[in-house]
């Protein structure tokens, strides 16, 4: 049994732990290399900033980070506290291939900009998205700013929180986004602290909604 599994046994019931491990494994399976790259960045942040993480090897830390990723709802309040982790790199506005918005956002922004909705957005695979992405048509490469900041869609306001397949708020596993990486590192530290304290804590409940 890995050190991580042994440590977690003291926190969760056998049933919960089986469920949590299976959810974590699903992320590795479904997201493949993208998820591995994301977790590798989280491990780097943990090693650089949290001495208590050093007792674990990389495989253990990967397991703990993936588990931290699937327990507890990721709240806006937590993301607000961690906002300084955003480096302003502009990746989210310039490199995202598909920027999905709500229909209400598409309507509101088109009205505000006095343009036809279809000129700015496209309906694709059952969802509205910004017509021109990568970079986004409203990203100013000279200063890295959004030219419709006050009107930006909901998806941009909540990034790097997104809605996952189980309809809950979850950190988007984007290795290039320091904000997302630090947010999961933070959740992993909470898990490590709970392990150190030897107690199950309220926020650390399976949150897959299944
Ligand atoms: S609308 Fe603004 S915040 Fe959203 S992706 Fe485009 S430039 Fe970025
Ligand atoms: S990709 Fe992440 S770190 Fe970079 S600007 Fe966007 S939110 Fe900030």
UniProtKB/TrEMBL annotation:
InterPro entries: Puta_zinc/iron-chelating_dom
A Pfam family annotated for this UniProt entry: CxxCxxCC
UniProt name for this protein: YkgJ family cysteine cluster protein
Organism per entry: Candidatus Dehalogenimonas loeffleri
């Amino acid at each position: 049994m890995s050190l991580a599994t042994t440590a977690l046994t003291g926190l969760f019931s056998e049933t919960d732990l089986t469920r949590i491990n299976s959810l974590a494994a699903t992320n590795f399976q479904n997201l493949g290399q993208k998820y591995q790259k994301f977790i590798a960045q989280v491990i780097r942040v943990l090693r650089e900033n949290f001495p208590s993480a050093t007792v674990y090897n990389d495989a253990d830390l990967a397991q703990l980070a993936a588990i931290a990723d699937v327990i507890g709802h990721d709240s806006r309040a937590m993301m607000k506290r961690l906002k300084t982790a955003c480096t302003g790199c502009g990746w989210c506005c310039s490199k995202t291939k598909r920027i999905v918005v709500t229909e209400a956002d598409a309507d509101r922004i088109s009205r505000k900009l006095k343009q036809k909705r279809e000129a700015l957005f496209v309906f694709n695979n059952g969802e509205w998205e910004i017509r021109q992405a990568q970079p986004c048509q409203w990203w100013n490469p000279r200063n890295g700013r959004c030219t419709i900041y006050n009107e930006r869609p909901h998806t941009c306001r909540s990034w790097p929180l997104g809605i996952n397949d189980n309809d809950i708020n979850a950190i988007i596993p984007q290795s290039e986004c320091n904000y997302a990486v630090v947010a999961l590192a933070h959740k992993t530290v909470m898990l490590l602290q709970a392990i150190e304290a030897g107690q199950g804590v309220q926020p650390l409940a399976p949150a897959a909604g299944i």
